[in-house]
Every structure is written in structure tokens, then in C-alpha cells.
């Protein structure tokens, strides 16, 4: 999936490559979804075709209605019963996001399926929230309701009647606008929820609470207890975090060196992980976008202004992050960024390709292997320090990478990475890659001073690299950003921000003797290295504040 078209590709524990929206759901709800939680037209049609080939339709004509629409409903009901919060119980309520715009041809089978579904399960088992934009004409400054009126009319014409309107706007909705919407859209005023622009996204749950959106949903689904007032949502942690984020003043500048810098959604989870760590360490995140191509020598000749701007941003940053990516465009610029961070003792975090870039740069600059490269960029290289994985496919691109949650075993107990993970003996993180560090060259690298502190369970696949003599120079083959949460920042991102803001030693001291299991909870580590019982005193994913403030784990 092209980042220019889809934004980032979010990876789930089971290896599912899905839309970035599922990442938002995992972060906000702190749940673990599966590939089945991502319904696509292709999956539905493939399932129906497979059933027809097996003879399950007994030779009948296969049509959009009822076969495709039935398959959509069956998929929803099946997936809704899968536990996602770490328990064995099914959820009480399943949220279905139907993307696109009313009237799109692509979504018509799904709209028809949901229309049938709402009729079949009945009004008390189905709540439709319609999201619509209320724009403002700059000339007159009036909030216009016509787009919402027309979209609701279109929705009704397709057999779906909205119970709640979620109205996006730049400013809070005026009262007369709500009255007008209620009149023309046949939705009660208490069920018209306004989601206006806020200073940070963590204010959104608070907006919903203040407008009693939970009461509207409980009423539509008939989940209210008779004679009892609905309890207020427990959002004290959200309130504190949203307020804290707004008040942060001391900046920490991170140079993001990549080739999709023109579209921030391409690195959405990376940005969120940086934000989680920055807020936890009381720093205001400032991301310096550095197009990797602009760091290269060819840019200095073609567009010198862009070249100077890129290097100025890189040199002015407190830390450098090279995220994942594919293809050879901009690779030389990333190598130069890694070299600058290594030689200047600037904190560096390389993710996936960013780790491979660091290995290539080390081979060229420190080991004097001028032709060192990845076979992804130069298949004929005589010094292949990064190679194609043996189990991969070079002919089929889709879902043939090393995907999903894999275990990394720490080889060096006192390395920075292990300390950041609370001295755990292993960690489970999500992967998405086709290439790996050449295991035949590992011994040479380690002799030259590059430490491979994390490996897979076979011991042959390199997962984490470190430069022991550097302030903070870490590369990870996995993607730690996918499991970062607002209340539980990714340890490696926490380390990068701490190093960039001069707090790393204090952070490592605070984490000493604590371990983190794969779900992000703090655990007690025993002498044999096994992770056992949870430590007492954990409050909302945090230890109570001591010293210079709370350090979320």
C-alpha cells in the first residue's frame, strides 16, 4: 500500500496489514485487534467466490444482494464476538466504522448490508452515528447546515436513519444551528454532538463526555439501568494528559528523516509514539521534517536552498529518527543522517530500514567497506551487509514479508535497550520487513564495535543494534511505534526523547529492576530473568510521582 495514497500501513499482532484508523482505535481503547477487524471489499468478494467454488450456494446465481450483503453481516457478527481487551469475554458493544462518503459506489454494498442488519436486529440493538462537516463561509462567517442536511437525506434514501449526529466544525456549534439540524434531520438536540477543533486530540473524549454522548448512546441501545442515572465516564487520566500537553513549554526537537515527509500520515504511529514519550517526560515535541533526498550531494547542486534548509534542520535537532521505508530513493540522505548522529554523538533511533541504514553507514565509515550496501538497493553489491530474507518471495509482494508480533531476546543484559524495557529478558514487538542484517557479517561488525544486543529466538536474525560508547544510538528491526499508548509510551521512543532532553540517566535509574511484559504493563523481574507478578503501586499505568515527576511505563 502506497503511503502517498493510504498513509501509513498499520501492522497488527497477527501480521495483518491494515488502515491507519485501526491504529487509532488500538491507541485510544488500548486493545489488540486482528486482521479480521479490517473488512475490505476484496476480502468479502474473495470469501463469497471461495464459497461458490466449494459449492455452498448449490449452483445458484451469486449476486450482491443477498450473497455479498449477507457475507458482510456474517463477518461483522463473527468478529464482534472476538475478545480484544485481553479477557476471554466478548465485548458488550461493537463499533463499526463505515468509511467513505454517502453516495460513493464503493460503499453501496456495505450500506445496504447495514440497512438490512439494522432492520434484522431491531432498534435497541443498533445505533447509527452519522459524521458530517458543518463548514463556515469565510466571507460571512456563518455555519452552514446544508451539507449535513443533504448527507442525512441521502442516508435515509438508502435505508439508514441516523440516531446521533457527530458534527465536525472549526468552532463550537451555535445553538440555532443545532435547532436547525434537529428540525431538518429529525435528530433530537441532545443527540447532536459537536466535535470542533481542539488544541490536542486528547480533548476529544472530554468533549464527548461534556455533551453527554455516552448517555445518548446508552439510551439508543437501551443499556440504561432502570431508575439509575448513568455513571460519569472515568476520564481523570485523559483530563490530566490533555491539560498537561497544552501546558508544556520546554521543547525537544526531533529530526524525522524520511522520504514521505510531505504527508505526515505516512508516519502517524511514529508521530504518536514521539508525542506519548514527550508528554511523559514533560517536553513539548517539535518535529523537524527533513526530506532525506535534500541531504544528498546532488540536491546541493540542483536546489541549494533545500539542501541548506535540510542540513540546518538536522543539525539543529536534539535527536534524529530514521523511520521505516522501502526503495532506494533518499537512502543516501538517510545514511548521511545516521553518520551525522553517530559522529556528533546526537541521539539516534533507527526503525526497520533506519536500523539497516545505520548498519550500512557503520560498515562504510568505521569498517572502511566502501561498497557495503543492502541487496535491496544494489543486488550486485560485493559487500552485502543487508540481505533478502531466505523465506521471502521476490515475485509476490502482498503479505509475503515477515509480519506481526515476534519475540526478541536480549543478548546483553546491561545495554540501554534492555534497561529501557525494565531489564526484561525478552520483548514481543511487531515487524514488517523483507530484508535483514547479513548474519555472516555479524562477527565482523561486533569486532568493530557495533553491538547486536537483541536477536530472534533462533539467534541468527538481528533485532536490535547499539553503539555502547554513544549517548544513545539504537536501531530496531521491529516497529515499536505500533504498540505505544498514551499512558504507556514505547520504551525505545521514551529513551530517544529522554536522551534528547538530557534525562536518560535519570530514566534508566528509575526503570532499574522493573520489567515490561508484551502488553506494556510493569512487571517484577526475578533473578532467572523470567517476568512474573505485577508490581504493586501501579496507578493507571503509572507509578506514583516521585522526585522530578512521574515516569509512565
From TrEMBL:
Keywords: ATP-binding, Glutamine amidotransferase, Ligase, Nucleotide-binding, Pyrimidine biosynthesis. Belongs to the CTP synthase family. Catalyzes the ATP-dependent amination of UTP to CTP with either L-glutamine or ammonia as the source of nitrogen. It catalyses: UTP + L-glutamine + ATP + H2O = CTP + L-glutamate + ADP + phosphate + 2 H(+). Residues 264-497 form the Glutamine amidotransferase domain. Coiled coil: none annotated. Its EC number is 6.3.4.2. SUPFAM superfamilies: Class I glutamine amidotransferase-like, P-loop containing nucleoside triphosphate hydrolases. GO terms for biological process: 'de novo' CTP biosynthetic process. The keyword Methyltransferase does not apply. It comes from Urochloa decumbens. Residues 1-223 form the CTP synthase N-terminal domain. Pathway: Pyrimidine metabolism; CTP biosynthesis via de novo pathway; CTP from UDP: step 2/2. One of its GO terms (molecular function) is CTP synthase activity. The keyword Ribosomal protein does not apply. InterPro entries: Class_I_gatase-like, CTP_synthase, CTP_synthase_N, GATASE, GATase1_CTP_Synthase, P-loop_NTPase. This is CTP synthase.
Amino acid at each position: 500500500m502506497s503511503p502517498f495514497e493510504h498513509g501509513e500501513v498499520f501492522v497488527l499482532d497477527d501480521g495483518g496489514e491494515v488502515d491507519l484508523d485501526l491504529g487509532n482505535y488500538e491507541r485510544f481503547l488500548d486493545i489488540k485487534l486482528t486482521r479480521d477487524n479490517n473488512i475490505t471489499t476484496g476480502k468479502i468478494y474473495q470469501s463469497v467466490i471461495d464459497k461458490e467454488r466449494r459449492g455452498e450456494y448449490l449452483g445458484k446465481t451469486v449476486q450482491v444482494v443477498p450473497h455479498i450483503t449477507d457475507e458482510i453481516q456474517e463477518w461483522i457478527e463473527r468478529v464482534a464476538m472476538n475478545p480484544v481487551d485481553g479477557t476471554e469475554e466478548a465485548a458488550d458493544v461493537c463499533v463499526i466504522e463505515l468509511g467513505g462518503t454517502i453516495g460513493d459506489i464503493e460503499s453501496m454494498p456495505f450500506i445496504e448490508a447495514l440497512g438490512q442488519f439494522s432492520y434484522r436486529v431491531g432498534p435497541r440493538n443498533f445505533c447509527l452515528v452519522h459524521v458530517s462537516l458543518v463548514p463556515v463561509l469565510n466571507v460571512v462567517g456563518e455555519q452552514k447546515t446544508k451539507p449535513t442536511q443533504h448527507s442525512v437525506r441521502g442516508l435515509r434514501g438508502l435505508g439508514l436513519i441516523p440516531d446521533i449526529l457527530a458534527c465536525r466544525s472549526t468552532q463550537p456549534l451555535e445553538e440555532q444551528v443545532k435547532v436547525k439540524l434537529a428540525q431538518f434531520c429529525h435528530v433530537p438536540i441532545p443527540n447532536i454532538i459537536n466535535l470542533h477543533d481542539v488544541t490536542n486530540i486528547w480533548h476529544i473524549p472530554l468533549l464527548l463526555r461534556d455533551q453527554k454522548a455516552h448517555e445518548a448512546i446508552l439510551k439508543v441501545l437501551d443499556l440504561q439501568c432502570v431508575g439509575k442515572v448513568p455513571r460519569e465516564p472515568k476520564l481523570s487520566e485523559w483530563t490530566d494528559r490533555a491539560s498537561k500537553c497544552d501546558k508544556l513549554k520546554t521543547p525537544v526537537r526531533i529530526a524525522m528523516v524520511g522520504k514521505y515527509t510531505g504527508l505526515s500520515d505516512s508516519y502517524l504511529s511514529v508521530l504518536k509514539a514521539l508525542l506519548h514519550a514527550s508528554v511523559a517526560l514533560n517536553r513539548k515535541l517539535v518535529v523537524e521534517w527533513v526530506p532525506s533526498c535534500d541531504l544528498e550531494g546532488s540536491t546541493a547542486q540542483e536546489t541549494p536552498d533545500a539542501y541548506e534548509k535540510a542540513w540546518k534542520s538536522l543539525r539543529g535537532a536534539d535527536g534524529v529518527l530514521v523511520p521505516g521505508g522501502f526503495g532506494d530513493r533518499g537512502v543516501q540522505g538517510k545514511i548521511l543522517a545516521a553518520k551525522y548522529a553517530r559522529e556528533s554523538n546526537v541521539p539516534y533511533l533507527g526503525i526497520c530500514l533506519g536500523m539497516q541504514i545505520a548498519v550500512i553507514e557503520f560498515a562504510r565509515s568505521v569498517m572502511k567497506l566502501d561498497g557495503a550496501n543492502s541487496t535491496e538497493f544494489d543486488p550486485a553489491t560485493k559487500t552485502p551487509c543487508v540481505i533478502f530474507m531466505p523465506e521471502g518471495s521476490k515475485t509476490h509482494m502482498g503479505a509475503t514479508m515477515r509480519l506481526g508480533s515476534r519475540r526478541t531476546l536480549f543478548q546483553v543484559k546491561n545495554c540501554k535497550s534492555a534497561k529501557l524495557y525494565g531489564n526484561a529478558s525478552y520483548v514481543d514487538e511487531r515487524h514488517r520487513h523483507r530484508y535483514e542484517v547479513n548474519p555472516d557479517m555479524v562477527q565482523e561488525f561486533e569486532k568493530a564495535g557495533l553491538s547486536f544486543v537483541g536477536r530472534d529466538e533462533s539467534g541468527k536474525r538481528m533485532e536490535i543494534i547499539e553503539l555502547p560508547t554513544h549517548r544513545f544510538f539504537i536501531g530496531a528491526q521491529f516497529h515499536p511505534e505500533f504498540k505505544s499508548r498514551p499512558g504507556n509510551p514505547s520504551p525505545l521512543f521514551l529513551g530517544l526523547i529522554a536522551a534528547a532532553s538530557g534525562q536518560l540517566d535519570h530514566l534508566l535509574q528509575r526503570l532499574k529492576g522493573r520489567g515490561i511484559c508484551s502488553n506494556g504493563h510493569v512487571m517484577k523481574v526475578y533473578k532467572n530473568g523470567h517476568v512474573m507478578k505485577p508490581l504493586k503501586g501501579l496507578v493507571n499505568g503509572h507509578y506514583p510521582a516521585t522526585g522530578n515527576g512521574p515516569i509512565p511505563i
